[in-house]
Design goal:
Elements lengths: L11 H4 L8 E5 L15 H6 L1 H7 L3 E4 L27 H13 L3 E6 L9 H9 L11 E2 L22 E3 L5 E3 L14 H16 L4 E4 L43 H12 L7 E4 L5 H7 L11 H5 L4 H18 L4 E3 L8 H4 L8 H6 L9 H17 L3 E5 L20 H5 L38 H4 L1 H4 L6 H15 L6 E2 L7 E5 L5 E5 L12 E4 L13 E5 L1
Parallel strand pairs: 1-2, 1-10, 2-3, 3-7, 7-8, 9-10
Antiparallel strand pairs: 4-6, 5-6, 11-12, 12-13, 13-15, 14-15
Length: about 550
């Protein structure tokens, strides 16, 4: 049965200002969601036209990835104006219409905010280039003289996340810092104008009805820029994941203690609204450090990427869930859970790769080494999703996962647009495979994405995954998500769980309350179910009523 939105969808904030603590948030990558004008690029009107899909799915909020003016040097995260809409995606009036329709349907609206850097086309950076060394305009960014006899060497050995040096030289001889692409110069957050401009941005979108913010690269704003700038000595230490190899808080540009003063300042602004605006940090930092970003007087919540990276293994999953709940509890926040997003290989494919597999190498092989079984991948992904949705806290879904979409690993080199491809010397394909536009119908020039083509080519296999092909079909992945989210809203109460200690080694089980529990079979053989009414399963039970391999059940 197709689950439709209620006649009067609940406005969670009217009942609970902390609606986000156990919400289900659906990430929309606007350029790949729906195209209203037929130019091949998704837009805000396309999102608005498809909001009924999200309401019918049963999510609580949508999170919009950047829709700001951008040349797409980094998929929209190179922002030329933080308080405007890219004209290819619409206008501020279109955004207002989207927010109004979302709220009418009972959906909250969360937007990306990108504070670490701007586009090189931002008016500030253009002023900085024109003003020259030592100018007030350059002080908003991180400009430095180079090393060497003629300043021909970068100021430090810092590396870009996307490969190569994190410094780019300008014609007058100075260098500027860019932790990502050269088109994304880093701001200097010691500058009062930078701080005030983002206060204005937070108020601008909050005044337009935005309910919350996802903070991009939240751990990188504060930097040790005292002279002389210090080398890391080992290029790998520029990687966000290398933080554990340096004493906490000592990295020159990641996870420094002074970043938290910025977020305490932001929280005062967010709390000035009724209800208070929520925020969630994208902070690639260890458990023990992430707790600070999620404190009530800072952002209030932080993404849990350890869970996303955990292999399909009972002991590993139990450990990361336990640690994540403990970290959130210590912060006075709720845990967050995510399996896919716009930066990683979709979990329908990723969970089938061997433990420790190099996803970059797999993408370079166009998904052939190793070749994956799509049916097995979907079965495991459905089980993982039902497990995630049973956990206490907020679940963040990525567009298309409700359709069971796999990673499009076979994209040919000539269509790739992710800057990672070029900046790594064409040794890493990057993230385009998870950003291929959604299929809405099983036919048409772009499977219902728009009246024309799509900015990234969709494989023929997308026809079978289309929304229209799954709508109302018993057992489809779309209907599984609809049923699970409807049940979740009815069942969710406390923010705790109790582990079952009598399960076999490769079975993960826990109770959410006296009302319901979750059991996931990660083994290769069917296992008996514990007593109780079967509320929902990610796949059919065996003829004997056992829980099959890679299957999750909710029991009442």
């Amino acid at each position: 049965m197709t689950v439709r939105p209620d006649a009067s969808p609940p406005d969670l904030s009217s009942q609970r200002p902390d609606w986000w603590r156990q919400a289900v948030v659906y990430q929309v990558y606007p350029r790949s969601f729906a195209d209203a004008d037929g130019d091949g690029l998704g837009d805000l009107k396309g999102v608005t036209a498809r909001l009924g899909h999200l309401a019918g799915l049963g999510v609580d909020a949508l999170w919009l990835s950047p829709f700001y003016p951008s040349e797409l040097a980094d998929g929209g995260y190179d922002v030329a104006d933080h308080r405007e809409v890219d004209p290819r995606l619409g206008t501020l009036d279109d955004f207002d219409a989207l927010a109004a329709e979302a709220h009418r349907l009972g959906l909250k609206v969360v937007v990306d905010i990108v504070p670490n850097h701007t586009s090189h086309r931002h008016v500030w950076f253009q002023e900085a280039l024109a003003a020259g060394p030592g100018s007030a305009a350059r002080a908003r960014y991180v400009f430095r003289d180079g090393r060497g006899l003629d300043g021909e060497l970068p100021p430090t050995d810092w590396r870009s996340v996307f490969g190569g040096s994190a410094w780019r030289r300008v014609p007058d001889g100075q260098w500027y810092l860019h932790l990502f692409t050269p088109e994304q110069p880093d701001l200097d957050w010691r500058h009062p104008e930078v701080r005030e401009d983002f206060r204005t941005t937070l108020r601008f979108w909050s005044d337009r009805g935005v309910d919350g913010f996802r903070v991009d690269v939240a751990h990188a704003l504060a930097k040790d820029l005292a002279e002389p700038l210090r080398d890391l000595g080992e290029p790998a230490l520029s990687d966000e994941k290398a933080l554990v190899r340096l004493p906490p808080g000592t990295h020159p540009f990641y996870d420094r203690d002074d970043v938290h003063e910025i977020y305490r300042d932001w929280r005062r602004i967010l709390d000035s609204y009724t209800p208070p605006r929520m925020a969630v940090a994208e902070a690639w930092v260890p458990h023990a450090r992430r707790v600070r970003y999620a404190l009530p007087d800072e952002l209030g919540q932080a993404f849990n990427f350890e869970y996303l990276e955990t292999p399909w293994d009972t002991a590993a999953l139990r450990q990361v869930v336990t640690e994540s709940l403990g970290t959130a509890r210590a912060a006075g926040a709720s845990a967050t859970w995510v399996l896919s997003n716009h930066d990683v290989v979709r979990h329908t494919s990723r969970l089938m790769l061997p433990p420790g597999a190099d996803t970059g190498a797999w993408l370079l092989s166009a998904g052939r080494r190793p070749a994956l079984d799509p049916a097995a991948g979907l079965r495991r992904a459905r089980a993982a999703t039902l497990l995630m949705l049973a956990l206490p806290g907020s679940a963040y879904l990525y567009q298309g996962e409700e359709l069971g979409l796999p990673e499009v690993a076979e994209l040919p080199p000539e269509v790739l647009q992710d800057p990672i491809w070029e900046q790594t010397g064409r040794t890493q394909k990057g993230r385009d495979g998870c950003r291929v536009p959604l299929p809405w119908t099983p036919d048409g020039p772009s499977y219902g994405f728009g009246t024309g083509g799509a900015w990234l080519p969709q494989p023929k296999s997308f026809a079978a995954y289309a929304v229209a092909a799954q709508d109302g079909v018993a057992g489809s992945t779309l209907e599984l998500y609809r049923t699970a989210l409807r049940l979740r809203r009815k069942l969710t109460e406390s923010e705790s769980l109790t582990w079952a200690e009598d399960t076999p080694p490769e079975v993960l089980g826990f109770a959410r309350s006296d009302r319901w529990r979750c059991v996931t079979n990660l083994s290769a053989t069917p296992v008996p179910l514990p007593p109780g009414e079967v509320l929902l399963t990610s796949g059919p039970l065996t003829p004997e009523g056992r829980l099959g391999p890679d299957t999750t059940a909710w029991l009442g």
